[in-house]
Structure formats: C-alpha cells, structure tokens
C-alpha cells in the first residue's frame, strides 16, 4: 500500500519541459500572446496555469507563473504575458524572445479554478485587467467543444486600449455575452461612466442568483475581493464562486 501511494505521488510530480516559441501576437502595447511547442505536454484544463523558468548564461535562474490562454492543443500551449516594468521575466518574454528561442515550462498547475465542457450550467466570468487570460481559455474551450453552456463575461479594464483579444471578443459567438466595464476612460457612446465594478454591473450584466451559475473571478487581489463580495450580496452561493488572484511578483 505504501509503495502504491508513493508511486502515485511520483506519477503526478510536475517536471520541467523545454518549450520553444513558435509564434506570438501583440494584444496591447504592453501585452503579448506567446505560442510554445512543448514536447511531451500532458494536456491541461481551462483555468490552469504553468510555471515558466529562465536560465541566464551564468546559471542564474528565475521563474514566474502564468495562466494558460487557450484550450488543450496537443504539444502547444499559449500564454498571454503583460510586461511588468523592471520585471525579470516578463520583459524578456514580451520584448526580447523570438521564434526558436526556448524557456522551460512546468505544469499544468491547479485543479479548482477550472471549467470543464461537460458542465452545461450557466457561467459568469468576471475579469479584472489581465485576469481575462484564464477566463479566455474557458471561452475558447467552450467554443472548441461545441458546448451549449451559456456564458456571460464582465471585463473590467482601464480603457479601450487595454483590451486583450479585442478582435476575437468582437466576433459573434452564440451563447456568449460580453460587457466591458471601464475604470479610467470609457469610449464615446458608452453610457456607463468610468469607475470600479459596482453591484449594478453584476446585477445587470451577470446571471441572477436563482440561475445558480458557476462564477469565476480573476484579477488583482482588491478587484477579486470586491467582486466576490458583490456576488455574495446578490445572493450567489459561496460554493459557486471561484476566485483566482494575483499581485506584484517582480515580473
């Protein structure tokens, strides 16, 4: 029995794998989506993340965690990375790395903040800034699987120039409703004034609590805490609110 338990732990042990950059797409002036080929990649679920490790010529190593931006796709994974000023990892990934260059990737990591396409329950996605990344993986997984689960996305961001995946989110996607909540500057013609997420935003753009949706909230810590509290105030069950937060890590 002890040997079987040990063997199970060893099988699940995450390993570092070489990842070669095969393509990239700019999302904003400071964010870039990177597509890697990772031989031996075991696959992943929408909402999981990976660790990325860089090794300098003198042997110095540093690593950061990034959410996966797309569904499982054989040996390929996609990450969307925001350039953090004075960071160690993100400036290399967004400004320097070119096709053919390699990093190391370990994962996938996480099993609670995930969405599976066999679940047809209504889904509410609440994104703050770059917190859209794992939620976009859920949207893309839904589309890839042909799921009929109805999705609603509330995307809070500073202004129209900060939108990730802008063209993709503009395209018609039956069963997906998208609302933008601008916090600093709203484009002309938008009736909602710029400001932080409010109870009315979730009441109008989200699902009623009576529909018992699965709620996924991702973004900076303050945003996530505020959005989760508002969902609770609207009567959503705590066990249906899943959160993923991030804060300063040095990039």
UniProtKB/TrEMBL annotation:
The keyword Transferase does not apply. Residues 14-115 form the FAD-binding FR-type domain. GO terms for molecular function: 2 iron, 2 sulfur cluster binding; oxidoreductase activity. The keyword Metal-binding applies. Keywords: 2Fe-2S, Iron, Iron-sulfur, Metal-binding. SUPFAM superfamilies: Ferredoxin reductase-like, C-terminal NADP-linked domain (SSF52343), Riboflavin synthase domain-like (SSF63380). InterPro entries: Cbr1-like_FAD-bd_dom (IPR008333), FAD-bd_FR_type (IPR017927), FNR_nucleotide-bd (IPR039261), MRET (IPR050415), OxRdtase_FAD/NAD-bd (IPR001433), Riboflavin_synthase-like_b-brl (IPR017938). Its cofactor is FAD. This is Oxidoreductase. It comes from Nonomuraea aridisoli. The lineage of its organism: Bacteria, Bacillati, Actinomycetota, Actinomycetes, Streptosporangiales.
């Amino acid at each position: 029995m002890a040997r079987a338990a040990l063997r199970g732990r060893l099988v699940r042990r995450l390993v570092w794998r070489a990842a070669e950059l095969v393509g990239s797409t700019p999302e904003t002036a400071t964010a870039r989506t990177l597509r890697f080929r990772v031989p031996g990649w075991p696959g992943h679920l929408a909402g999981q993340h990976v660790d990325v490790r860089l090794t300098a010529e003198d042997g110095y190593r540093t690593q950061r965690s990034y959410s996966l931006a797309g569904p499982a796709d054989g040996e390929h994974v996609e990450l969307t990375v925001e350039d953090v000023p004075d960071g160690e990892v993100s400036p290399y990934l967004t400004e320097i790395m070119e096709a053919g260059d390699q990093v190391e990737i370990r994962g996938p990591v996480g099993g609670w903040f995930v969405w599976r396409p066999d679940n047809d329950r209504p889904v509410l996605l609440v994104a703050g800034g770059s917190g859209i990344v794992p939620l976009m993986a859920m949207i893309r997984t839904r589309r890839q699987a042909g799921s009929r689960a109805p999705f609603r996305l509330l995307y809070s961001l500073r202004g129209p120039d900060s939108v990730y995946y802008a063209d993709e989110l503009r395209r018609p996607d039956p069963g997906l409703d998208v609302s933008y909540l601008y916090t600093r500057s709203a484009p002309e013609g938008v009736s909602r004034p710029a400001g932080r997420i409010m109870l009315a935003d979730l009441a109008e753009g989200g699902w009623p609590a009576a529909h018992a949706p699965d709620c996924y909230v991702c973004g900076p810590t303050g945003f996530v805490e505020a959005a989760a509290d508002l969902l609770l105030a609207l009567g959503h069950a705590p066990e249906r609110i899943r959160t993923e937060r991030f804060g300063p890590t040095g990039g």
